[in-house]
Design brief:
Helix content is about 60%, strand content about 15%. It is built from 20 helices and 16 strands. It starts with 14 loop residues before the first helix and ends in a 7-residue tail after the last helix. Helix 10 (about 260-285) runs antiparallel to helix 11 (about 290-335). It is of the alpha/beta class.
Length: about 625
């Protein structure tokens, strides 16, 4: 079980570059965004104008003592104008929110699509280094942080800046001396923002990272509950979860502490500023520099000036979280993709009247490699399933050698078996054949063509795999089998299931082939899931078949039931079998015994028994496979 100790929190490399890149996702809706900004600007100006109306409203009230009728009419007009201004402000706010909601959702849709598409192009080694929970956190926590920032913070910041500028102009027109107090406040708050903000961003990065680890650990433990309970590791799991959770709490506490103190500091500075302006303003009124109405309007503007500043400080919480989330997302988008320099493609083929192989647009059951020539023309090479490994070396990490000088061949229609202890390199051979990983040294030929010259999509289309760890998708039984051939008819699905001897148990399900499977087929037994996996490979009708412990989860009785069907499936195909049950490889044309990444014995069953070597010891039970 992996240990999850405290991590060094990494500071974002370039927050401004990350923010700029994030905003670039909105460029497709730039016109709508400009409309939102214009609407927000008008709404903010109307709010400032509403504060300005306090002056004539106060003057009309003062004049009522001298000329009630005239002053009252003026009072009603200003009051009505104030009502119209507030109504328009609310209406414009509603319009901007509706448009902004559409922009945000489209932007998030674009981010998720790019991230998911990118993940489909990443090499398998990337997914080997990440848990499912960690991967999901990119789509939930990180995208959620961006949603909050774009949906609330961006609008709030624009509104705040427009309000600040307009209010500053109004205050400057009333009293430059009183405005100087506001300028001092801005300078103080700028230094506070810079000091606290740098610490907040760094800790938000740590928070996002530890939340991803927390999600990954929870997903792993929930999926492995049976194992946890069988070995009575509940207490150990809880302790390890507590360790990760504590680290997440610490990072989250630090991040939110620095972000949350901005609001109170900003509010207190605003109150201090209001008090200073009131005292200094009273002195200016007594000195006759400004009127009482001017002072009241200025104090109203002071509140309007402090609120945007406070909003800017408070939105820093959301912005820093979004920057941290965006940086993690961009780290995915910047991952090196799975390379494919191949130019040989797989096509349908048929024979013309001269018995020459030609390309066909329809599925014929005959496949061919379309190989480009140096002069720009192409030639067809029939796909027969002839596979050759020549002096292949491979290491996953560049340090420990997994395969050493492995050489063997598989003629078309042959069944080749690999046996050996766990870690001997059996599955690695199939990973190299499918180009999930690239060899370090040596050559792999497929029908005489270097597999590096074959496009990966075409290469994998020519292979059908049945893995030990089956994976069924949420959907009907029919949909899961059809995954091997998306254009398969219902009749073809039934035939494939009969071939794998899955038809009988499928018909006993509540809705038969239309039964919906959920939770990786949790309502099926392991053997039934394996049978569906075999049916999925059968319907693909690929010329090369890879069986990686394909019958490991099937009991002896079921294994016998599918033996005939598997023989039919393997007929005419090149088959690679990895098995712990040596009884399943007895009829193989060749058996390769691997140990420490090398082939130490090879031959058919009878030859290896006669050699009385490692295979003989394994078969007679003197040694057991791990």
């Amino acid at each position: 079980m992996a240990k999850h100790g405290p991590q060094q929190v990494r500071k974002p490399l370039n927050p401004f570059k990350t923010l700029k890149r994030l905003l670039a996702f909105i460029k497709d809706w730039l016109f709508a965004l400009i409309i939102v900004f214009v609407v927000i600007g008008i709404s903010s100006l109307l709010s400032v104008y509403a504060a300005h109306l306090v002056n004539p409203l106060f003057e009309s009230i003062s004049q009522m003592l001298q000329d009630f009728d005239s002053a009252y009419k003026s009072f009603v007009k200003v009051l009505a104008l104030l009502g119209v201004v507030y109504f328009l402000t609310a209406l414009l706010q509603f319009v901007s929110d509706r448009i902004m909601t559409t922009i945000v959702n489209k932007t998030l849709n674009k981010i998720r699509n790019q991230m998911f598409s990118k993940m489909q192009r990443l090499p398998l080694s990337f997914f080997d280094s990440k848990t499912h929970g960690e991967l999901m956190s990119y789509y939930t926590n990180d995208v959620g942080a961006i949603r909050d920032a774009l949906g609330n913070s961006l609008v709030s910041l624009v509104s705040a800046f427009v309000t600040l500028i307009a209010t500053f102009v109004m205050m400057l027109s009333i009293s430059p001396l009183l405005t100087l107090v506001i300028v001092v406040l801005i300078i103080v708050m700028t230094f506070i923002t810079k000091f606290i903000g740098s610490r907040s961003i760094r800790n938000y990065q740590g928070q996002q990272s530890t939340i991803a680890k927390l999600n990954g650990y929870m997903e792993e433990m929930m999926a492995g509950q049976k194992v946890v309970k069988v070995f009575n590791h509940q207490d150990a799991v809880k302790r390890e979860f507590d360790q990760i959770n504590q680290q997440a709490r610490k990072n989250s506490t630090k991040a939110n502490f620095y972000a949350s103190v901005m609001g109170p500091i900003s509010n207190n500075l605003s109150h201090i500023n209001f008090a200073c302006c009131s005292m200094f303003g009273a002195y200016l009124v007594i000195a006759g520099t400004i009127t009482v109405a001017d002072l009241i309007e200025f104090l109203q503007h002071t509140k309007n000036f402090a609120n945007p500043l406070s909003r800017i400080m408070q939105q820093f919480n959301s912005i820093t979280s979004a920057i941290a989330g965006a940086e993690r997302i961009f780290s995915i988008l910047d991952q090196p993709e799975e390379t494919d320099e191949g130019n040989v493609t797989l096509v349908y083929a048929t024979f013309d009247i001269n018995n020459q192989l030609i390309e066909s647009e329809e599925r014929t059951g005959l496949w061919a490699w379309k190989v480009p020539n140096e002069d720009g023309s192409t030639r067809l090479v029939r796909l027969r399933g002839d596979v050759v490994f020549k002096d292949v070396d491979f290491s996953y990490d560049g340090k420990k050698q997994v395969l050493k000088d492995v050489s063997f061949y598989a003629k078309p229609g042959q069944k080749i078996a690999f046996v050996g202890a766990t870690g001997a390199g059996k599955t690695t051979i199939t990973n190299l054949l499918t180009r999930f990983y690239e060899i370090n040294e040596g050559t792999i030929l497929y029908d005489g063509i270097n597999i590096k010259d074959i496009k990966k999509a075409s290469l994998r289309q020519s292979l059908a795999m049945v893995l030990q760890d089956t994976h069924l998708f949420t959907g009907t039984v029919k949909d899961n089998v059809r995954y091997g051939k998306l254009d398969a008819t219902d009749q073809e699905i039934v035939e494939a299931c009969k071939l794998a001897n899955a038809d009988e148990f499928i018909n006993r399900l509540p809705q038969g082939y239309d039964t919906v499977l959920k939770g990786d087929g949790s309502n099926l037994s392991q053997g039934q899931r394996q049978l569906l996996s075999i049916a999925r490979a059968a319907i693909a009708d690929a010329p090369v078949l890879i069986l990686d412990e394909a019958t490991s989860s099937i009991d002896t009785r079921t294994e016998k039931l599918i033996e005939e069907g598997m023989d039919n499936l393997m007929a005419g195909r090149t088959v690679f079998v990895i098995a712990h049950r040596l009884s399943t490889v007895r009829n193989s044309n060749a058996i390769m015994v691997l140990e420490n990444g090398q082939i130490i014995e090879r031959g058919d069953h009878d030859d290896l028994i006669e050699q009385k070597g490692k295979y003989y010891s394994l078969y007679t039970g003197q040694f057991e496979l791990d």
